[in-house]
Amino acid sequence: MAQRVVKTTYLLGLLFLVAALVYFFASNWPELGRLMKVGIGAGFMILFYGMSATVFRHHFLSKWLLIFGAITFGICIALIGQVYNSHADSFLLFFIWFIPTAMFAMFTRISFLSIFSFGLLQLTCWFYYFPSSYQIERGEWPSFFILLLFAVINGIISFLGRPSIVSVLAYMAMHSWLFVIFIQGISTDQFHFWPYVYAFIFVLFLIYVRKQPYFICTVLFTGMFGVVQYFRFVERHFGGNWYIFGLVLAAIIVYIGIYALRWMKKRSNGKVEKIFFVAFQVIVTGVASIIVVGSILQLLSFWFNVFSPYWLFSISVFLFVVPGLLWKRWNDVVRYTLLAIGYILGAFSVTEVSFIVITVYIAVLFIVSWRMSAGVRTMTNMAVSLYFDMMMLDEWSDIRFTLFTVFVFYGIIYWMAKHTYERLVFLVFSFATLLLLTSADLVVVDWAYVVWNILFLGFVALVLFFRTNEKEQSIAWLSIFLFLTLKYYEWVWSLLHKSVTLAIVGVCLLIVASVVQKRKSISLSFHKQKWLPLFVIIMLQVAFITYVTFDKEQHLQYGQRIKLQLEPVDPRSLIQGDYVRLQYEISTIEGMNEWGKAQVILRKDETGVHRFVGVYSLNGKPRNSTMYQEGDVLVNGHIYGNTIIYGIETYFVPEKTGGEIQRHARFAYVRVSKTGDALLEKVSER
């Protein structure tokens, strides 16, 4: 017990320190110069690595100091982007971060680094296709092959890698990117052939994929694909009467689900965790319920111009909830589907029906379900809390009291429940409701706001220190991570003040852990690590940071200064803080529809602003080179259709100053190197 408390306290201290580091640099404190900021970031990275290799070499903290050192390297790369105004959340940031992290994972076999590097790879893919700092229009085939490439990369990782959690995650990511192709095709009216190919791919996977986690994932995405296609087909080709066939389709899905579940249990020979069967039941129930609920609502709308909410409430209770609760001999999938349909339909009418009726209904549901199976009890308690939540908001409109009441309800169910998965479900809901209470975007900032935040941290500590179930502890760690993320985006107090607070808390936790460890004489040994390959990677990281910083400084000092006209907007980066997103006058070229690397000609006008003259070269081949005159400036960029990205589309600013800059900035001053690379120096009103 004492050893686990000490380990947890150490980890919380390190986590808060790294979060403080992120908050501090994201605040973009103007009193610190460029080199000082990069130096501090690199210094913390070296400190983490050094302590991991020396002071705590055979200590439990050695592994985690190495991990936080790898995380700090990414912070340094983001920091360089901030101080030299590179892309916010650029795919290059995450790709550069991914390479050494993946190498660390390969040499150390630390599962956290493997999962973290995999996440960085997905962020690389995401921000390559969906950049945050600029907008581009891709053609149909380039878009398709880029997304397909992401799916193939993840498929290779999944099928060629050794069996692990990363292999399962890669398989899920592969299906996610295939599904993105499907959704992109619908939203942009492209890839019209893809639904047919996608359906064929699903058939192949369902036939040949054998391992349970992969099979469950395939079924999940097959269900999502089927639901979307079903409603698209009905909406496009048929009127309201066709929705009655949705009820038949849902029955077919449930029947197939029952058969597939029995087949899976026979094939598994009892070697598969129950969670996969539960997940499969949830998928079948969810897909069938969505189709039935949509069909019933559409049918009622088609048959009646106006229908009483009591009709909908009565249908939900007597046709679905009562049979689902009372007919215990039915298959579990059938019961869960009936209950899900009834509870969802009831949610559409709960605020329109008499308060007394709903109160009695909720009380009866709670009492009747308490002696039933864990699955029925879990679904019913979820419905009870949802109805109660909706009623309270409708009657009193007090979101804080409502959330706190629901949290207490979830907490009671969590402590009283004996079934493992039931406890996990309500622990997740407890953390979720309490996390909403800590948000300044939902509640008023007063003394109660402070109480909610303290209560959340206390609940996290309670689970981390006194609960032994690993799944419950994982939920608590995820919740504390979400809490720190929420505080990062919260407007109520500055990032700098948050950073100082987190740093103080982190240091105090480390001191407490160290004192307890010494007094209790607790040994926290760790296996011996081969440091030579890790040392090479660390030296390469330091060399990369040094080189990039030196190159940027040389660029700012010796590059040719030009003035460009712009139009700014104002978002916030994931880890780099506030920035102004810039749209230049030279960013759009009318009449162009090209792709690749471009070099454009800029010429100073009588006002001192450099204007676009023409494209000097495209993909290394001369385009309008004869237009170049003495005094003109050549600038590199990437062209996407008629849009050119120069790499100077973001300008990082101190926290909460972006709005002021957005209102007044009209021009950007840019340094252009001899090779044509642009580096944003500042923005100005004139």
Automatic annotation (TrEMBL):
The chain crosses the membrane at residues 9-26, 38-57, 64-84, 90-107, 112-129, 141-161, 168-187, 193-209, 214-231, 243-263, 275-304, 310-327, 339-370, 399-417, 424-444, 450-468, 499-516, 531-550. Keywords: Membrane, Transmembrane, Transmembrane helix. Residues 9-111 form the DUF2157 domain. The keyword Membrane applies. This is GDYXXLXY domain-containing protein. The lineage of its organism: Bacteria, Bacillati, Bacillota, Bacilli, Bacillales.
